[in-house]
Amino acid sequence: MGAIVAIVGRPNVGKSTFFNRLIQRREAIVDAVSGVTRDRHYGKSDWNGKEFSLIDTGGYVVGSDDVFEQEIDKQVELAIDEADAIIFMVDVESGVTGMDEDVSKLLRKVDKPVFLAVNKVDNAQREADAVEFYALGLGNYYTLSSINGSGTGDLLDALVKVLPDAEEEESELPRFAVVGRPNAGKSSFINALIGEERYIVTDIAGTTRDSIDTKYNRFGFEFNLVDTAGIRRKAKVKEDLEFYSVMRSVRAIEHADVCILLLDATRGFDGQVQNIFWLAQRNNKGIVILVNKWDLVEKETNSVRDYTAKIKEVIAPFDDVPILFISVLTKQRIFKAIETAVEVYKNRSKKVVTRKLNDIMLPIIEHTPPPAYKGKYVKIKFCTQLPTPYPQFAFFCNLPQYVRDPYKRFLENKLREHFDFSGVPITIFMRKK
Ligand code: GDP
Ligand code: GDP
Asked: Given the DSSP bridges, would you call strands 50-56 and 42-47 parallel, antiparallel or unpaired?
C-alpha cells in the first residue's frame, strides 16, 4: 500500500520517457518473464527504499492536442483527488505554454505536494533557460533530463521525503475491494449483499473520502467492503475512459487485501478488465473473478467451461484464481462469491510451517533439481515462508543466481498443488546459503 504519485502535463513534454526510466528496472524483468504486455502507464517504483506507484496520466489520453485540452482539467482534478503527490512536467525546449499555465492554475490551489519538473534540460544552457518557469507561480522547480537521467535523483529525493510511510494501515479489518469497469454491476452487487439502497449516493460537495466502506459480517467473518463505483460518483466523472477506471481502482486496490473483480459477462474479459486484474496481481492482492450478468448469457452445455478457459488463457501463468458465474439480478451465487473471497483472504494470510514445507518440497526438488547452468549444479538445501503479509518463499541454495525463472515457476506450481493458494500471487526468492 505504497503512496501514489501522478505525473501530469501536456503531451510531448517527456512524461512517458520519465515514467519508463523509473519503472524500467522492475517491470522490464517481470514482463520479459511472463511475456505479457501490460498497461504501460501504471507501475511501481522505489527510491531510497521507499516504494510508490507511478501513474502517467497522459498515457491514457489518445487523440490530438485539442482533445487533450478538453480533458486536461478533469485529469488533473482526478490526479489531485487520488494521488499523494503530483509531478507536473514541463518542457524547457518549448518554454511556458498556455496549457502549462492552465494546469498551474489548478495545481496552485492544491494542498498536496506538487513538484514542478522542467524536463529536457540536457545541458547547461538549458539549465539557465529553465528560470522562466518561475512564472508559473509554483515556486521552486527541478530540472532534469529524462533521456539521460540527470537531475532525476534530486527530484526523487525530494519526492520520497513527502510521501506517507507504507505501513500506516487505517483499518484492522480485512478489506475487500469490489473493482471492475463501469456498469459491471459493482454497486448492485454491494446493494444485494447489504440489502438496502444505501449506495445510491448523492454527490456531497467537498467530501474527501477515498472510497465508500461498509462493515460487513458473513460466515462469522467481519470485513470492510470497499465500493469503487462510489469513487466515480464522488469525482462526478461519468465517462467510460480507461484512465478514470484505472485511477479510481489504484487506490482501492492498493489498500485492499482481496479484490473482487466483477465483469459483465456480455462484454467479456477485455483489455480494461485485464488492466485491473494485473494491477491487483502486481500488488500481490488476493483475487476473485466474478462473471456477472450470467442471466443474460444464452447457455449451452459448455458455456461455463469455455468461458473459464478463455479467461485462464489471458491471465496465465497466474491462472490459479477462482472464477465464479453470478447474477446480481437473480442473486445467483452472490453469497458463494463472498465465501470464496473469504477463502482467498485466508489463503493469502496462510503461513506454512517450515518443517512441513521442507518435508514436502525437498523430495520434489531432489527428484527434479534445477537444471545445471554453465556446468554448475545448484543445490537447494531448505526453504521457508517469509513473515510477510502475502505469501513469499525463500529457497536457500549455493548458487541462487543460476536458478532461472522456469524452475521458479515449477516450484510455485508445486507449492500451489500441495497448499491451497488459490487466488493469491506467490513470490519466490532464491537466497544464498
Ligand atoms: P509525453 O507525451 O509527455 O509522454 O512525452 P514522451 O515521453 O513521449 O516524449 C516526447 C518526446 O520528447 C520524445 O521524442 C522524447 O524522446 C523526447 N524527450 C523526452 N525526454 C527528453 C529529454 O530529457 N531530453 C530531450 N532532448 N528529449 C526528451
Ligand atoms: P457499477 O457501475 O459497476 O456499479 O454497475 P451498477 O451496479 O450500477 O450496474 C449497472 C447496470 O447493470 C444496472 O442497470 C444494473 O441493474 C445492471 N445489472 C447489475 N447486475 C446485473 C445482473 O446480474 N444481471 C443483469 N441483467 N443486469 C445487472
From this structure: antiparallel
Task: Show the ligand 2 pocket: residues with CB < 6 angstroms.
Answer: 180, 182-188, 229, 292-293, 295-296, 327-329
Look at the domain 175-349 and name its fold. Answer: Rossmann fold (3.40.50)
How sure is the predictor about 212, in pLDDT bands with cuts at 50, 70 and 90? Answer: low
State the pLDDT at residue 228: 72
Fold of 3-162: Rossmann fold (3.40.50)
Phi, psi of 427 (to 5 degrees): -115, 140
Is the beta carbon of 20 within 6 A of some atom in ligand 1?
Answer: no
Domain 3-162 identical in fold to domain 175-349: yes
Distance CA 230, CA 188 (A): 11
Q: What is the pTM of this model?
A: 0.69
Instruction: Tell the residue nearest (CA) to atom 10 of ligand 1.
Output: 12
For residue 89, the SS3 value is strand
Q: Taking a C-beta distance cutoff of 8 angstroms, is the pair 275, 246 a contact?
A: yes
Q: How far apart are CA 298 and CA 291, in angstroms?
A: 14
Which residue minimizes the CA distance to atom 12 of ligand 1?
14
- Ligand 2 centroid, distance to 292 Cα (angstroms): 8
Ligand 2, atom 11, lies closest to the CA of 183
In this prediction, the answer to ipTM > 0.85 reads no
Domain 354-432: homologous superfamily in CATH: K homology (KH) domain (3.30.300.20)
C-beta 264 within 6 A of ligand 1: no
Q: How far apart are the first and last CA of the chain?
A: 31
